[in-house]
Design a protein that fits this description.
- Chains A, B: It comes from Streptomyces catenulae.
- Two copies of one chain form a homodimer.
- With about 220 residues, chain A is an all-alpha fold.
- Chain A has two domains: about 50 residues, Orthogonal Bundle (Arc Repressor Mutant, subunit A), CATH 1.10.10.60; about 160 residues, Tetracycline Repressor, domain 2.
- Helices cover about 65% and strands about 0% of the residues of chain A.
- The interface between A and B is large, with 36 and 36 residues.
């Protein structure tokens, strides 16, 4: 069925196994032998794809970055209102962090600058938030006089914090927690010029419990 | 001059040296020999105080917890308005994270649950935020109908995120960044019942640039 070459399949399996290993044991204790065994291949096959543990970690982070990018693009495509798109993107990302081990491990590795050689996920998220707030401002959807940069920073801080806090207590990334965050934030952002008040509980069309929710949204 | 016994002085020097070593190299790469050398003592002296690297890390976290507790108590003592006390506490903590290596390393270690054996600093901070919001609610200082628990979670998320983001870019913990956070948050919280609007830029009486600002406040 699949046209994906075997080599690409193996690489994806290694990335997933690495994410599971990093997620369970942390980067310093993760062993390359456990990563290759988890992917059902030899350590030789692992070394064909990745020179070092740092290279595997960078690949996990790149995959998490790709998921972030795809999610944001898909939500924007489906949701013309930029404030609603911002709300919906946070919900989709929270669900991916909660359910997809590659996204979760990618963000966590990305937090440990000693190991990071790939993309800066939080900086990319900050850019995404600023772009959506800029579009909202152009459409006169924001509270008049709002300091959009400060609001963007507060929101990036809060979402980053929720991700970090969820490592100890998964309740920080449940739909109700993210909805609560938006019930707090939307009154700061949404002005009287909006045709309708954004819905803090996120996307209505997304099927629940699927790891790649953003991809599912466009099917 | 000091009446502190030599043993307690050595222990404090070891905690500070450990914090510097963890801050610079991360926990996994930190060597006990570097920690004892940084404190100007032998590794034997280190082992007199701490059995393992995890025990040194726990002591750094305990010291950071003590600083958090003292700061919060001092600010409350000086600031009767609970919302202003909340604002001022975040400013004092941000300055401590930016300037005091023991506080910074303590929070960072505390984020890595694999190594944590001491206090949960973020849970303690959450309790502190909830207590101050409860007091504000009792005094009718909050926006009517505010979901204080959700606001507390949003604020704990944002402050946690600022701390994590500052590891890559110190600008997240500057006074102006924390002031911007409060310019975003205060309109959510502060209701018309307040005798005066809280000041987002934090405490007026704190001398700048001192590592232990909370202690300085009471002098």
């Amino acid at each position: 069925m699949s046209r994906q070459p075997r080599s690409a399949q193996t690489r994806r399996a290694l990335i997933r196994s690495a994410a599971q290993t990093f997620d369970e044991h942390g980067y310093p204790r993760a062993k390359l032998s456990a990563i290759s065994a988890g992917a059902g291949v030899s350590t030789g096959a692992l070394h064909f794809h990745f020179d070092t543990k740092a290279a595997v970690a960078a690949a996990v982070e790149e995959e998490a970055a790709r998921t972030l990018h795809e999610s944001a693009r898909t939500v924007r495509h489906l949701t013309p209102d930029p404030l609603q798109a911002l709300v919906d993107t946070t919900h989709v990302l929270a669900r991916q962090l909660a359910t997809d081990v590659v996204t979760r491990a990618g963000y966590r590795l990305n937090c440990q600058s000693a190991h990071r050689s790939g993309p800066d996920l939080r900086a990319r998220w900050h850019v995404c938030v600023c772009e959506l707030l800029d579009r909202a401002e152009e459409q006169n959807l924001l509270v008049p006089g709002l300091a959009a940069e400060e609001s963007a920073a507060a929101l990036v801080g809060a979402t980053t914090g929720f991700e970090v806090l969820a490592r100890e207590d998964a309740a920080w990334l449940t739909p109700s927690a993210v909805t609560g965050l938006w019930r707090s934030f939307l009154p700061i952002l949404a002005g009287p010029g909006a045709p309708q008040t954004p819905e803090p509980s996120g996307p209505r069309t997304a099927p629940r419990g699927r790891p790649r929710a953003a991809s599912a949204l466009v099917r």
